Amino acid sequence: MIANDFVYCKPGNRREAVKAYRALSKEDKKVFYYNGGSEIITMARAGSNAPDAVIDLKGIKECNKLELEEDYLVIGGAVSLNTIEESGLFPLLGTTGSRIADHTNQCRITLGGNISGTIIYKETVLPLLLTDAKIILYGPRGFRRLQFKNAFDQRIKLRDGEFIYQVKIKKEMLSLPFTHVKKTAIEKIDYPLVTVCSISYGNYLRFAFSGLCSFPFRSVEIEKILNDSQLSAEERLEKTHGLLPEPPVTDYQGTGEYRLFVFDNIIKAILERRNNEVL
Length: 279
Ligand SMILES: Cc1cc2nc3c(=O)[nH]c(=O)nc-3n(C[C@H](O)[C@H](O)[C@H](O)COP(=O)(O)OP(=O)(O)OC[C@H]3O[C@@H](n4cnc5c(N)ncnc54)[C@H](O)[C@@H]3O)c2cc1C
Prior knowledge:
With 279 residues, the chain is α+β, with helices and mostly antiparallel strands. It has three domains: 7-58, Uridine Diphospho-n-acetylenolpyruvylglucosamine Reductase, domain 2 (2-Layer Sandwich); 61-174, Uridine Diphospho-n-acetylenolpyruvylglucosamine Reductase, domain 3 (2-Layer Sandwich); 178-278, CO dehydrogenase flavoprotein, C-terminal domain (Enolase-like, domain 1). Helices cover 35% and strands 24% of the residues. It has twelve helices and 14 strands. It has helices at 14-26, 38-45, 81-87, 91-98, 103-106, 111-116, 125-130, 148-151, 171-174, 220-226, 233-241, 256-278; strands spanning 7-9, 31-34, 53-56, 66-68, 72-76, 134-139, 142-147, 152-153, 155-156, 163-170, 178-183, 194-201, 204-210, 217-218. The strands form four sheets. It has a five-stranded antiparallel sheet with strand order 4-5-10-6-7. A four-stranded antiparallel sheet has the order 11-12-13-14, sandwiched between helices. The protein is globular and about 60 Å long. The model has no long low-confidence stretch (mean pLDDT 95).
């Protein structure tokens, strides 16, 4: 429940959504696009960031789309994590979503909301970075169609009034062999200490990470080192530590040092399994 008065609107199409955003913003209101509401309501309850107005995107048909088209899987920004998992269409994203929060919340939390939220983890970003996904944004100046990796740098780069309309993933990327490992401090359902997603593309491993640093990321430089079979696993890990985009996070769940230890163990297990598969 949001305790303060606020405007709620549920437009039926994208143009109305942007029109509402502009009109409400002009009235100097704090306006949020609203999808699952899990974060907006939590923050409003805590009194940290209560909206004056929310624009619910779930009324827009295209934002609820989950469909295989000729070459792509299309996922609307308002599709829930649970719907993605149950569809079985993108197993890596389904698995990643199935380890975010509990089942009840997975039925509410949406892809667009997880990508755009304020928490640092945004785990659904990892499969999108690994599979060369595209993102379609819609805002006052119409559509922008971007490579996901160009739209997401530490956070999603939205222009004022823009929202996540859809994400598209090439069909051939959907069923690549993958590994998903999420390690938490104590409970299985919790924010990650470290989450690693990896896919095997050709004979090359791609990696993306959440929890380790204060934003989710994929690093091509780290992948080069981790795929270098001339180096031992220990050498690869040591070099990797020097390539992290920032020092590992220290918080109530674990120190940066401990996170790095967890990260090393996950990577070692992935590399060892790969060696065994080659043998
Ligand atoms: C119990 C619990 C545990 C959780 N654990 C994890 C975890 O371990 N890992 C993890 O990654 N996440 C986790 N989450 C999810 C995360 O914290 C957010 O609550 C969730 O991602 C928000 O999704 P939502 O659809 O509810 O977004 P909303 O609450 O509707 O919106 C969140 C933010 O995104 C913006 N937004 C929403 N949709 C769009 C859009 N289409 N375009 C542009 N902006 C948009 C909103 O304006 C708002 O600022 C957890 C959540 C809960 C409730």
